[in-house]
Specification:
By secondary structure, the chain is mainly α. It folds into 3 domains: about 240 residues, no CATH class; about 130 residues, no CATH class; about 220 residues, Orthogonal Bundle (Hypothetical protein af1432), CATH 1.10.3210. About 65% of the residues lie in helices and about 0% in strands. It contains 30 helices and 6 strands. The strands form 3 sheets. It has a two-stranded antiparallel sheet. A two-stranded antiparallel sheet has the order 2-5. A two-stranded antiparallel sheet has the order 3-4. It is rod-shaped, with a radius of gyration of 52 Å. The two termini are about 75 Å apart. About 35% of the residues are buried. This is HDIG domain-containing protein.
């Protein structure tokens, strides 16, 4: 009981005009929408940041949120390729020339010394030592001095030939270790010398041999760079496992965390500030659009709050989708997110134009949560627009399922289009077919959720949606059955007023369904005292003839307050209650005023004492119901309702309402009122048409029997 009273109190506060039109509350609602959505979504926009050290155990399983280059693995691969590159050398001819010159100098000096008889042996050896390469041994020089000039010349030629053979080809530093062996092989294979000559040639040649392959550092570096450039980058793909829960953090893991942006000592404050600006701009532009709408279509604070709840609901769904995608390591999960749910709910509870604007908003939020992926922005916008337009005219709950199938079809088309637009179609057929299947499932889920969530909003906030109106129009509704059983004349009157109101609403752009259903309930208060209303009187006896006019006025006008009380107990939405409260406005009960004036001998009767309490109509629908109620009652009371007389009565009723100021607070124009007359005439023609007089059947039977 306590919760019920609280709920009733909250409902009355939300329905109060002081709440619905309060500008300060309106500003608070806009701020709350932005703050709550930021708080919900910022965790999905900001990638998680881990401050881990080598050797530490990972507290969670971490997967890559993006596809990027593995810098450590790529660098290792490049270094391995560089290591395989051989050093670059260039053969130098100067080494060969220098070696030959040294050989020739040595042997030429030896020939001169041997021929010079004036030199002693010691002088000859000293002279030859000064001309010989440093590595030539003294024993070789002494042996050389024992040779004749002719032999020396032969040895010179043999030594030059061996030097030319060895240094004419690439001769590396590594070859120096085998220089003696190489010379010995040359001597054995190509020359026929005695042992002494072989030793002389061998020692001289080995002493002058040097590597002729000069290391080229710049060329070697270029070769390494070229080899490294051919190595493809090692990639970390979105969803790849970086480290499992309880896994050890290694240098490789730490490098990968840095590469994918998951390692930092502090959160990325710039992204947080940027997303705050994104939310502020989005909510600001949405607020500007809402506030610039025509007054009749501008959302009051209650509907603005409901828009905020829908936005929060969509934010929660986006966060859940991001969490599931991160858990399974694939963004494909986002294709099943029922992003069109928000647009469907806004269209049914508000209007489709606002749903289109909200579709932009929710689609960009989805793309932002999924690493600012444009594909999901496009996909979400297509689904949302199709969902909004598919439920623009709801005739039953089956409309949602049809809308769901249509959204599924368009989702599949969007997936195919996005696939065809990819220049690098890296995904396989399995992924492509999975995306199509999830897109098809998306629409069905959105329709089911819309049908499930909508009654919550209808009940919690007393919203009047097309679905709720269709349910209220059911003749089995307890209030309508009560009117039918206790006040059948009023019930018939309400049906005709509903026909008139629906026809008028269609032609002036009001809500036809609201007008019809509002007409069904506008006179439910008459069930309290049905016999006091002429349409329910089965005999010519009128109870008002026996009571004072002031009491009659009180009884007649009380059907408005009685009806409001019954509607509130039944939980009928506020627009229906408004129609009941304003369908007479502050009009005057002229019949009872005139009757009271005739009985008043002191002249104390005032016309304002015989007015309805009001209020006056503030919406088109309420104004249309006021006019239709009066038109139906007036035409029904006419003795001979010819078209001209009916039209005259309708015009008089409208003129009286205008002169009495009953239509001052609504936005019906004179043109609207004029075209409504035509709609009334067509409807009344079908209700109060002339009929032929049927003959007396019993009399005819008697005549036939004769």
């Amino acid at each position: 009981m306590v919760f019920s009273r609280w709920g009733q109190t909250i409902r009355e506060y939300l329905d109060d005009d002081r709440f619905r039109g309060n500008k300060r509350i309106r500003l608070i609602i806009y701020l709350a929408i932005g703050v709550v959505m930021y708080a919900i979504l910022v965790g999905s926009i900001l990638p998680p940041r881990y401050h881990l050290t080598i050797g530490q155990t990972s507290p969670v399983t971490i997967r890559s949120p993006i596809t990027t280059v593995d810098t450590a693995a790529t660098q290792a691969a490049k270094e391995a390729a560089e290591q395989k590159v051989p050093k670059q050398y260039e053969q130098s001819t100067q080494v060969e020339t220098s070696a030959v010159n040294q050989v020739d100098t040595l042997f030429a000096t030896a020939a001169q010394v041997v021929s010079n008889k004036s030199l002693s042996s010691a002088q000859k050896l000293d002279t030859l030592s000064s001309a010989a390469p440093k590595k030539v041994s003294q024993s070789t020089l002494q042996a050389l001095l024992t040779q004749t000039p002719a032999q020396i010349s032969t040895l010179q030629k043999d030594a030059d030939r061996i030097v030319n053979d060895l240094l004419g080809a690439p001769f590396y530093q590594e070859s120096m270790q085998q220089a003696g062996l190489l010379v010995d092989r040359q001597l054995l294979d190509n020359f026929d010398l005695d042992k002494t000559s072989q030793l002389i040639v061998r020692d001289v040649v080995v002493s002058v041999l040097k590597p002729n392959m000069v290391y080229q550092a710049a060329a070697t570096e270029r070769a390494k760079q070229q080899a490294a450039a051919t190595v493809p980058d090692v990639m970390i793909h979105q969803g790849d496992l970086i480290v499992s829960k309880y896994g050890i953090i290694t240098s490789s893991v730490l490098s990968k965390l840095q590469d994918v942006g998951l390692y930092a000592k502090h959160p990325n404050y710039s992204v947080a500030v940027g997303f705050a600006g994104f939310i502020a701009l989005s909510v600001g532009l949405l607020a500007a659009y809402i506030e610039r709408r025509p007054p009749g279509r501008r959302l009051d604070n209650l509907m603005l709050g409901i828009l905020g709840l829908v936005s929060v609901l969509m934010s929660v769904l986006i966060v859940l989708t991001k969490w599931v995608a991160s858990t399974v390591g694939s963004s494909s999960v986002a294709y099943v997110l029922p992003i069109s749910l928000g647009a469907m709910l806004i269209t049914v509870m508000m209007d489709s134009s606002l749903a289109v604007v909200a579709s932009f908003y929710y689609s960009f939020l989805l793309g932002a949560a999924l690493s600012f992926n444009y594909d999901f922005v496009f996909y979400g916008f297509v689904a949302s627009l199709v969902g909004a337009y598919s439920v623009a005219k709801v005739t039953s709950r089956g409309t949602f399922m049809r809308a769901g199938f249509f959204v599924s079809l368009m989702n599949m088309g969007a997936v195919i289009v996005l696939h065809l637009l990819q220049t690098n179609r890296s995904e396989d057929f399995h992924s492509f077919s999975l995306h199509i299947g999830l897109g098809a499932l998306n629409g069905i889920i959105a329709a089911i959720l819309a049908m499930g969530v909508l009654p919550f909003f209808e009940t919690a906030f007393g919203l009047l949606t097309p679905i709720r109106l269709l349910e209220l129009s059911n003749p089995n509704n307890p209030l309508l059955r009560q009117v039918l059983m206790e006040a059948p004349g009023t019930y018939h009157h309400s049906l005709i007023v509903g026909n008139l109101a629906e026809a008028a609403a269609e032609i002036v752009g009001a809500d036809p369904l609201l007008c019809r259903v509002g007409a069904y309930y506008h006179d439910v208060g008459k069930t309290k005292r049905p016999a006091f209303f002429v349409e329910n009187q089965m005999t010519k006896e009128n109870p008002h003839d026996k009571i004072a006019p002031s009491l009659s006025h009180l009884i007649i006008t009380s059907h408005v307050s009685d009806g409001l009380e019954m509607q509130k107990r039944a939980g009928l939405p506020k627009p229906i209650q408004d129609i009941c409260a304003t369908h007479h406005g502050t009009t005057i009960l002229w019949y009872f005023y005139n009757k009271a004036k005739e009985l008043d001998k002191n002249g104390t009767v005032k016309v304002d004492d015989f007015r309805y309490p009001g209020p006056k109509p503030k919406t088109r629908e309420c104004a249309i119901l006021m006019i239709c109620d009066a038109v139906e009652a007036a035409v029904r009371s006419m003795a001979r309702p010819t078209p001209n007389r009916v039209e005259g009565v309708i015009r008089k009723i409208i003129r009286d309402r205008l002169q009495d100021g009953q239509l001052d607070e609504c936005d019906l124009t004179l043109q609207d009122l004029d075209v409504m007359i035509g709609a009334f005439m067509k409807t009344l023609k079908g209700v109060y048409h002339s009929r032929i007089e049927y003959p007396d059947i019993d009399k005819l039977r008697k005549e036939v029997a004769k």
